[in-house]
Amino acid sequence: MRPTGAAHLGHLRGAFENWVSMQDELDTFYCIVDWHALTTDYADTSELRANTLELALDFLAVGLDPERSTLFVQSHVREHAELHLLLSMVVPLPWLERVPTYKEQMTQLKEKDLTTYGFLGYPLLQAADILIYRADYVPVGVDQQPHVELTREIARRFNNFYGDVLPEPKVKLTPTPKLPGTDGRKMSKSYGNTIGLSEDEALVRQKLKTMMTDPARERRTDPGDPTKCPVFDLHKVFSPDETQSWAAEGCRTAGIGCIECKNALADNVVEQLEPVRARREEYASRLDDVRDIYREGARHAREVAGETMDLVRAAIHLPVGDEL
Fold this sequence. Notes:
mainly alpha, Rossmann fold, 2 domains, Tyrosyl-Transfer RNA Synthetase, single chain
């Protein structure tokens, strides 16, 4: 995950909860990809280290366990950069230009100059992040499948030149529920419509109180359609079935007002965020321990990545270690 700002509800439901559940069944590596943050935000890096620390706290707060997973920061494992460099020698340029999110983000982020190799080459760096651990699976949503398929193609091309060195990872599809932001669009830091995991209860309630609803409900007495309401989309993710039924019926019949509906949603969101916030505050009170966790995670990651790079260097007939 890129350290580009505070983690929010979309991260919790779309990624973190799946990551936590995988710890018991797989040998998992969870990386804060600070180099990837530079691909779009290279012009101002003043907040990068602070954002990295905040995300390190979020990883721990949601339940990622350093006893069961390897937690680390990308730039602490420089083998990622070396593999990225070596892969760049064999990957055709059109492969990078056809990645769907390349043109999409060029259009969405017009205020930034993205005509850099770093931005064009970020899928290749992403592939190196995966292949350096010889991963069997990559947990992604449907929209990220093309990135994993590109990684598989890159592994095949490398292996065709140099022998069977890099396994082709498989997609591990994970559920990514629709999660609207406070303005009704997809919850995203770039839209400024998020509800952060570390925000206090008062701020969470205030943001939900001002959230968009079905435009048909201009007055309290106007019936609405819950399928057209972003607030109800959040109910489907955070509220129990009985609350969802109450909100849907009350909306259609104008039996409840939007404020009542939002207050019920806020109760459930706050309740589910409370243990996350409590763990976060605990870790924030002992940052030296947090740094030790990530230092140890990077040590283990470098060990595994180093083994891969020895295989890669040998296959390419580059020196392994200080040998000639």
